Amino acid sequence: MAPYEPEQDTNEADELSAGRRKAARYVVPLAVAGVAAATIGLVPALATSGDPDLKDITAQELIEKIAASDTEQLSGTVKISTDLGLPSFGGSGLAGGFGPGAGGGGGEGGKGSAADPSAKLMELASGTHTLRVAADGPDKQKLSVLDDAAEYSLIHNGDDVWAYDSASNEAYHSKEAGKQEGRKGEKELGKELPATPKEFAEQALKAADKSRTSVKVDGSAQVAGRDAYRLVLKPKESGSTVGQITIAVDAKTGTPLKFTLSPAGGGSAVVDAGFTKVDFGKPSASTFDFKPPKGTKVTEESDAAKGKGGEHGEGFSGVEGGGLNVIGDGWTSIAELKTPGGQGLPTSGSGADSGDVPPEAEKFLNSLGDQVKGDFGSGTVFKTRLINALITDDGKVYVGAVTKDALVKAANAAH
């Protein structure tokens, strides 16, 4: 694990301990959920009913059809199921540190708001969820995550973006400052974390470089009662953990209706997301109206940023100039980051150095990953069915939808 460190004064020791604890708290959710969602998109297995007889179309023509799709008005229900192969921690308390969305503030005693989209939407990176979606042009969108006894909604209407969590009766509000600052509302509504088949498809097609990707039309399907073509993308290069991506494209409008990413290791899809109902008519204007219910705790975006110590809070810092350093591109791109405090995983100890965690906890962390060595030194590789992450003992993280060998190679090259 971490190398021997010389004696430090109390303040330095406290800072390093805090850094290691933050590493344990933030690194796995970032590796598993953040990059999986933002880089590759969530993935769906194609559940269809019947194979409609459609006229022949080439892969290039179908991609152009997706790009030319001018669908701006729709409403419907989307089902998302995600299976990264992570262990279930139940009520052990570890889920709070390692589960998707860990680190997000909110609720009593927490920082920020339970309705903050940056944390709340990360829950889509595991389990099965039902979403209601609606859109009416670039200035009106709504996304609601439905649970058995609660609902979480994001509403973009003009200059206002609202998020409301009925379980905690908390709301989060942000205001677009102007077009010169970009469409913040659209970003908040899931551009960093795809939530509709169209957004999944856009993420996947960005990686579909002809020299690195096999692209073909593989028959037809019927999704949400509509005829669709099946577009299949497969990485040509070795080192990726992505097996293939299948996109069901509406034959009439060119709108992606369902999106499937299967892992290279075989088995069920990592994520299954697609419409179960869809209507391309104009949604009612009242769909996008929102007023916080009486008694709702409302957090303004500016106040939340202050509570988090800035826009990015206490998460990872990038390797170069505070930004994310990406090694390579396409299917085998790898993100390089630093852990908070620049330390590796927490370690146990004895005597005056009591360490950061009990020996049992350190043993548990080690059991979740594979110990590796290279020119970079040593570290631990944590694996899921899609995303793998290498955490080095000197506090660097290499993560991507790539194999363990690819991570070690990247770490050696960056050394």
From TrEMBL:
Chain intervals with Basic and acidic residues compositional bias: 297-314
Region (Disordered): 291-319
Xref: SUPFAM superfamilies: Prokaryotic lipoproteins and lipoprotein localization factors
Swiss-Prot/TrEMBL keywords: Membrane, Transmembrane, Transmembrane helix
Superkingdom, natural source: Bacteria
Claim: Transcription regulation is one of the keywords in the record: no
Spans through the membrane: 26-47
InterPro entries in alphabetical order: LolA/LolB/LppX, Sporulation_related
Protein name (record): Outer membrane lipoprotein carrier protein LolA
The organism of origin for this protein: Streptomyces lasiicapitis
